[in-house]
Design goal:
By secondary structure, the chain is of the alpha/beta class. The protein folds into two domains: 138 residues, Rossmann fold (3-Layer(aba) Sandwich), CATH 3.40.50; 191 residues, 3-Layer(aba) Sandwich (Rossmann fold), CATH 3.40.50.2000. Helix content is 41%, strand content 14%. The chain is built from 16 helices and eleven strands. The strands form two sheets. The protein has a six-stranded parallel beta sheet, with helices on both faces. Helix 7 links the parallel strand 7 and strand 8. Helix 1 runs parallel beside helix 11, helix 6 packs across helix 10 and helix 7 crosses helix 8. It is globular.
Length: 351
């Protein structure tokens, strides 16, 4: 049996949908499971023993109709028995439609249901502490599972060489392993997902004051200027605890370094999801417009904790959807002051 899983989206989404691949191997131990993703998301699923082939949806397929057609022909020739589409956009609709698979599964949408042989309605509220992002993805397997116990938690698989490389990087930068090491998700993927710089600096001051921990910054290379701005807003004593020069050169290197950290604290995003997949404790500051119930997976009040402005000031939201709130994200951030966050953070650090 051959199965194709599709998730052409961001790192967090690709990692979340990897649970579909993992569980397909439990349902069909002898099946070939292939995973179609964007190239930049590949690092979070490398070395996953449940994925036989990683198929990359390259930029050229968007730019060239000829290249895209050739790609679709390749999918058709692969003769998949099952295609599971967790993306549900035009690109994946076309892949599903031309695949020739006898079983085609996707999320229920009135305008694309005809493409699939089975659709699944997304649940709006979580039934477990895994969150709806993971629960909905696991539900894509509901018609295939024959009472097999499934694993809803994403996993990242590091090699021993990568683990040792991460430790070596920290040793070369003179980190004191007798102190706590905290990876800081200092910046989100964009302004609408980034806690205001002055507020973040106060959070970092608080962490150092309470723990004396060594802080590492995680950010994209293009965000170096912004990361330095936050560093400069911190108190001088806090700056002494920040190893600003330790910058992972790749996602896999970030993973190998985070493996040796005691926690990851910062903006919600792919880094948080990756830390959880490595079983690293997390404290997450949610963007003011992201739906917390979807992505606050495995929260238990101690190991994984998150805060959202809506937790403190629900009147600012009313019945508006996350999409409706996105345009007001920056204005809402102004109301998400550190004094709202620090009590929860202090409890988290004490634990």
């Amino acid at each position: 049996m051959k199965v194709l899983v599709i998730q052409q989206k961001m790192i967090g989404d690709v990692l979340a949908t990897s649970i579909v691949c993992n569980n397909l191997k439990l349902i069909y131990p002898g099946a070939q499971v292939d995973y179609l993703i964007y190239p930049f998301t590949k690092p979070v699923v490398e070395h996953n023993p449940n994925i036989d082939n990683i198929i990359l949806f390259k930029d050229e397929y968007r730019k060239s109709k000829k290249a895209f057609l050739k790609f679709l022909v390749g999918i058709r020739k692969a003769k998949y028995d099952i295609v599971i589409d967790a993306y549900g956009k035009l690109e994946s609709n076309l892949v599903v439609g031309i695949s020739g698979a006898s079983t085609k599964i996707g999320f229920h949408k009135s305008y694309t249901n005809f493409i699939y042989t089975k659709t699944v309605r997304e649940i709006p509220q979580p039934l477990t502490n895994a969150g709806t992002a993971l629960e909905n993805r696991l539900n894509l397997l509901s018609s295939l599972n024959n009472n097999v116990s499934l694993d809803i938690k994403p996993h990242i698989f590091l090699t021993e060489k990568e683990i040792q490389n991460g430790k070596q990087i920290l040793e070369q930068n003179d980190l004191d392993f007798s102190k706590k090491i905290v990876m800081i998700g200092v910046l989100g993927s964009g302004n609408s997902k980034t806690y205001p710089f002055p507020y973040m600096a106060k959070v970092l001051d608080f962490i150092v004051e309470k723990t004396g921990a060594t802080l590492l910054f995680n950010y994209m290379p293009s965000q170096k200027k912004e990361a330095n701005e936050i560093f400069n807003l911190c108190k001088p004593e806090t700056q002494q605890h920040i190893k600003i020069e330790v910058v992972p050169g790749s996602i896999r290197e970030f993973l190998s370094i985070t493996y040796h950290c005691n926690a990851l604290i910062g903006n919600e995003g792919g880094a948080v999801n990756m830390a959880k997949a490595l079983d690293i404790p997390t404290f997450t500051i949610f963007s003011t417009w992201i739906k917390k119930e979807a992505w606050n997976s495995f929260e238990d009040g101690t190991t994984n904790v998150s805060v959202h402005l809506k937790d403190f000031k629900p009147a600012l939201y009313g019945a508006k959807s996350p999409k409706e709130m996105k345009k007001d994200a920056l204005k809402l951030y102004e109301a998400f002051t550190p004094d709202l966050i620090l009590p929860s953070l202090e409890s988290y650090l004490n634990n």
